[in-house]
Automatic annotation (TrEMBL):
Note: The active site is a redox-active disulfide bond.
Protein name (record): Dihydrolipoyl dehydrogenase
Occurrences of domain FAD/NAD(P)-binding (ranges): 4-324
PROSITE patterns linked to this entry: PYRIDINE_REDOX_1
Organism (species): Roseovarius faecimaris
Assigned protein family: Belongs to the class-I pyridine nucleotide-disulfide oxidoreductase family.
Amino acid sequence: MANYDVIVIGAGPGGYVAAIRCAQLGLKTACVEGRETLGGTCLNVGCIPSKALLHASHQLHEAEHNFAKMGLKGKAPSVDWKQMLAYKDDVIGQNTKGIEFLFKKNKIDWLKGWGSIPEAGKVKVGDEVHEAKNIIIASGSEPSSLPNVEVDEKVVVTSTGALELGKVPKKLVVIGAGVIGLELGSVYARLGSEVTVVEFLDAITPGMDGEVQKNFQRILKKQGLSFIMGAAVQSVEASKTKAKVNYKLRKDDSEHQLDADCVLVATGRKPYTDGLGLEALGVEMTERGQIRTNAHWQTNVKGIYAIGDAIEGPMLAHKAEDEGMAAAEVIAGKHGHVNYGVIPGVIYTHPEVSNVGETEESLKAAGRAYKVGKFSFMGNGRAKAVFAGEGFVKLLADKETDRILGAHIIGPAAGDLIHEICVAMEFGASAEDLALTCHAHPTYSEAVREAALACGDGAIHA
Ligand code: FAD
Ligand code: NAI
């Protein structure tokens, strides 16, 4: 048994970042993790492995579709799936070991095993009970299930199984046109699978800017993904090697069936709080099973904080990290802060899709007068040189004050470009501030400046 200032439960991006910040602020810190490796969902079965497979499959796509155009002749490489998975596992290993190194460097004790909270101020791991002045719960999330769909992680899989399939399936049915479905659907489409996405709503990626949704879906269709929209999946019948997906079209209630070699269930994730003992402690939860916290990440039980996917808000690694740092600062007596209005979202398909702040839809609903500055990547020399002219930057600014309210990008490096706008928003900048900033040529970033110019007197290359 040991005494700590802080014990963090869970070593995902929320938990490990919280632990590091606590240690940096001079607090004696431990982090409990039940997995064999640190890094949580993100490093082990989420962000990092999915990006490795997106990168590898994109290279194949480039070789198949664009190399010859540049005078690079010869057959495109064939896929050695085992090697691709080994590369992905190596990337995971490098990253999870990196967190172990950071724990040692910051003198954070890794308490190996599953933790519970028998009472405020105590954390039990195995037979040991440790004392902690403060506890941060960062227990993350897990895939949510669908009625009448049994996941075996072989034929009917969640994202976890989809990152280590035995082989590339001939026919893949993806249930849910959200971030996971489209990222992993893209991977398998590039590797040669026939991919059909079945979505309950009439638009993909719910909550995103409507214009981006339409363009994104059109681009994905061109890449070979098929979509069945407005379709509610009723059940999946699976054998050891095949599956049938039964769905009903919402418009007429007609019943249909799809054959598949593999079914990816990507219908959202839910908070994971099993085994922590929260009910007995009286920790308040929301109706959606999230741990309820106040503006300082405190639960209703003194000394117990919660962050990341286990609480309200977008289920994103960087949101969890920001909350981890902020909660640590609150515990250390400082002023931890997260600006929830400026949390970017990125979909790592090709082209990438990114967003921050308001959408046209949300501004209309709020009755706020706004202007739109839009610039197509077709007017960006660098994008055209690398076959990435599809897509646009769309900037939303207040009609009167010109203050930037949001941005939506579909195009090359959209996930990086968005941060210029995030910084501008943090500083309360106007579109004119961006437009007056010299941007290097030839870069994709010029498209952001052009969109800002389009909010004023007009873009130059439009
Ligand atoms: P988690 O990362 O889920 O970590 C929680 C950890 O707590 C786990 O390791 C778990 O084992 C441990 N734990 C739980 N209970 C206990 C206990 N009682 N005792 C000990 N340990 C416990 N987000 C992005 O921002 N960008 C992306 O590109 C992205 N890609 C994704 C791709 C996929 C396929 C998936 C599934 C998710 C992706 N996400 C992405 C979401 C991202 O992974 C999560 O938002 C993020 O991991 C949440 O961090 P967290 O620290 O709250 O929880
Ligand atoms: P999601 O919430 O993004 O999308 C789920 C989709 O499934 C929705 O479009 C929904 O309408 C649909 N759906 C639900 N029930 C259905 C049914 N019965 N039949 C057909 N469609 C149905 O969830 P997803 O993609 O599983 O991702 C989970 C979380 O992981 C997200 O919150 C996301 O933030 C995070 N994530 C983030 C990534 C990133 O930042 N690049 C990458 C992957 C995941």
